[in-house]
Amino acid sequence: MRLVSLVLFLTFTLLPFTAGHIQLGLSEGRSREQKVWVREGSSAVLPCHLSPRKMRESSKQLPDKISVLWKRHGGSVHQEPHVVLEVGYSGLQKTALLMKPRVSLQEPALRNGNFSLRIVPVRSEDVGLYEAQVKYKTEVHSCHVELGVITVTLFPPNPVMENELLLMSCNSSHQASLVETCWFHSEHPGRTSRTFCSLSGTLSILHPAMSDAGSWRCQLRYSDKEIVSATFNLQILGFDGPTSPVVYAAAGSAADLPCSLSYLPSAFGMSVVAAHWSHLAGGHLQDWGISQNLSSRSFPLHLPVVGPGDAGQYRCTVSVGHRTISRDVTLAVVTVTPSIQGPVSEGNHLLLICSLTHSQGHEHFQWKHLDPAPTKSKLAVATSHNLEGHSSQMGPTLEIPQVSQKDTGTWECSVYGPEGRLGAVEYDLQITGAQVSSAPSVLSGQITFGLTLTIFFLLAVCVVALALQKRAQAPAFPALEGMFAVNVPWKPMEENQKGKMQQTEC
Ligand SMILES: *[C@@H]1O[C@H](CO)[C@@H](O)[C@H](O)[C@H]1NC(C)=O
Ligand SMILES: *[C@@H]1O[C@H](CO)[C@@H](O)[C@H](O)[C@H]1NC(C)=O
Ligand SMILES: *[C@@H]1O[C@H](CO)[C@@H](O)[C@H](O)[C@H]1NC(C)=O
């Protein structure tokens, strides 16, 4: 077998020499044989161009009349040399039926001395020795290019599903015996690349994760010291974002649990059959219907109001094609528990305890007193001076040794993780009790002010109405008005009038 291939190889290598000798009468130029390795499915360029010296001799541009003939020797299907592509002097192009839509020459490049043959996409049966014969004027230029194909096989084929056993293998058309296969994974720049080498050549990934996606290179080393390699992009259909996402939500607020596929399944000719959420609470499985648009790749779960009972593990299961992938999402609910249940009075000793239902262990808490001023952004006005005198500003417990009026308003407990602020919960502290009426607070002061304003406004309306009524009566009984002014003491009359007015007008 090896002998046969050696004979074949010699035949093919010697063939051009023989051809060259036959054409010795013409001024002949031939480039040395080149070997091109490409991955099956990618594009190949079989190079063939005139040297710069040749181009200078041809005064920069070649004549219009050029003929290019690309032939192929060998290959599994055709043992006879056969025409791959031919461009005649007339410019007419002929292509072998088998390779027709896949092979091309860059026509404008021909007269610049570039006769390279492009094959897109390359198939494993395209392997073989290719020869170009270019004729112009009395010149003949020939090129010999050997095309080798590397095949990367994925099982199951694209798309690879997250967590589903993946086998990757690599072979090539090289005839020598394989010594070693190495796999290189270079993810995002900056991240460490990984290398796996083995004799068998097949790389198996038990549970492919999203981090396994990206650029891979397989390298084959043969007994004759030949080393060939091919790169490919591994796409994994899984979920965006972290492997075990945790969503932090304040008790009483809404929460959105993410579930977004890394690719639109239609990009692989697949469709989403179903997506559903379940809550793994209390051992039993609670199903959530999903009415999202299934041609999308995002299936978030919206919980309008969450309580501590909603916390826990949720699972988003998406059926793509006939396969199913799922992602667990943890909902952690942040709550505030005050040490005093019911009304808080001035002077009380108060503890506000911030707690997290599902702590990952790395969270820390921070308490802030938010300025009640509605015009300013809440976070920006988090007043640190209000925290003076409070022992626990950091940590889950806020201690107020003696509640005073300045402590009223909104307290915010923020949860921080290594990646920043994760969530927050607010607690509204209102002070009630007898002290409020005796010593009006800022808030009750505001209420009193509003009440006074309302009474004053009503009074003003009545006075104006009274005045108008008086003016309306004036022209008819000017004397009577005077009499009233003189005889009747004004105060009782005013009160009397006012009472009437309030009955009728107010
Ligand atoms: C010749 O043309 C091919 C495309 O057909 C191109 O890839 C290659 O770079 C060109 N070579 C030169 C030397 O311009
Ligand atoms: C590589 O192996 C695959 C099957 O595993 C086969 O179809 C292909 O022809 C082989 N490629 C070469 C270049 O031998
Ligand atoms: C689903 O979403 C796609 C685009 O994301 C849109 O074109 C299509 O009309 C939507 N279908 C329904 C039923 O909403």
UniProtKB/TrEMBL annotation:
Keyword match Transmembrane helix: yes
One annotated GO molecular function: MHC class II protein binding
CC per GO annotation: external side of plasma membrane; membrane raft
Keyword Transmembrane helix: yes
Keyword field: Immunoglobulin domain, Membrane, Signal, Transmembrane, Transmembrane helix
Gene3D superfamilies: Immunoglobulins
Signal peptide start and end residues: 1-20
Transmembrane segments: 447-468
Any Pfam family hit: ig
A biological process from GO: interleukin-15-mediated signaling pathway
Domain Ig-like: 16-148, 150-229, 242-326, 332-432
SMART domains found in the cross-reference section: IG, IGc2
Protein name: Lymphocyte activating 3
Organism whose genome encodes this protein: Cyanistes caeruleus (Eurasian blue tit)
